[in-house]
Structure formats: structure tokens, C-alpha cells
Amino acid sequence: MRTSASFVGPAPQVVRKIAMAFTKVSVLHTKDGSRALERGGAVLGGRSIRFGDSINTDVIIPGRYLVSIDPSELAEHAFEPLGPEVQAALRDAKVIVAGKNFGCGSAREQAASCLVGLGIEVVIARSFARVFYRNAINTGLPAIALGGAVDAIDEGAQVLVELERGEVHAGAKTLLFPPFPESLRRILESGGLIPYLARHVVGAAST
Description:
The protein is α/β, with parallel strands linked by helices.
């Protein structure tokens, strides 16, 4: 188990998909009237899993595993207190949909990075604990506060997210959210705060 203090970033394939999610999207209408999204690159989203209110960081990643900072290692224990059935469902999911105050509790950044290690591409909740929200963005994980999502999106539904346009698509339903401001968008495109600083601050200073 890695215990070094060196930074371990999110999984590269997740970083690439999030960065490409800011590219132009074409919306196609199929014969049955449903919407399909087509991009030059990747579409954020996939199968969803639902949680209720006040999911705390001890549930997301128990404290005894915080000796690791490796997202892949942490992912093995994500949501462990809820049992193996929930963990199995998480491994098949790409989108977490939750109620209010998601990520409450401690300030552990592993609560966000373990989700990236699982392959979660976006978290949508009625509201977030403030520290978790910033940890998610700083880890490169889009966190979208969208009040009506938990009522509109069924367990296991296919959910597609257009970060650039501020739209969440679940079947025939389209939910709107304010697009990320430029400052947060640039962090997400870079794969997190540390890669952003390395590229735009340290890199710029060295040229």
C-alpha cells in the first residue's frame, strides 16, 4: 500500500473524458424522438446509482484507509460500510445521484479521489458539503448541484452530462444547471488543481 506523500492524480482515462467533455456537442434526434449525444470525443456519464441525503465521508471512504492516497487502492473500499451489493453496483456506475449535503463530515480529500478511482465521471446532488465540493473539483471530478436530479433520475438510468452547455440528459428528461465558471472549468480540464498549477503556474514561470 502506498503511503508516500507524493501526489497521485486521477485515472488518466477519466481525466481525458472530462477534458473532452468541454468540446462541442451535436444533439441528434432519433426516430422515436429521443435525444442522442454525439461528440468528437467522449460523453460524460453512463449508468447511475442513487443515494439519499447526508452521505458522509466516513461512508464514502472509512478513516482506516486514509493511509493511502492512491485512488485505485481507495476505490476498493469506497462505500464499504454499505455492504458488497452497493459496492458492486458502484463498479457498474459512472454517475452518482444523491440528495442534499453529499460529502458531509470530515475534510478528507480521499472521499473525492476514491470516486475517481472507481471510474465515477460526475456526481450530481441536491447539494454538497462545501469542503467536499472543492475537494471534488480539485481532484478533477465534476460535482453538479442540481436540486431536481434525485427526483427525476431513476436508479440505474443512463445519464449523460454536457458540462459546456449545463445540461443533464436522462432518457427524455433534460435538466439544466449553471455551467462551471471559467476558473473551475480550467481546473477540471487540467485533471485537478495540482495538474492545473503545474501547467499554468509552474510551467508559465519556467518559460
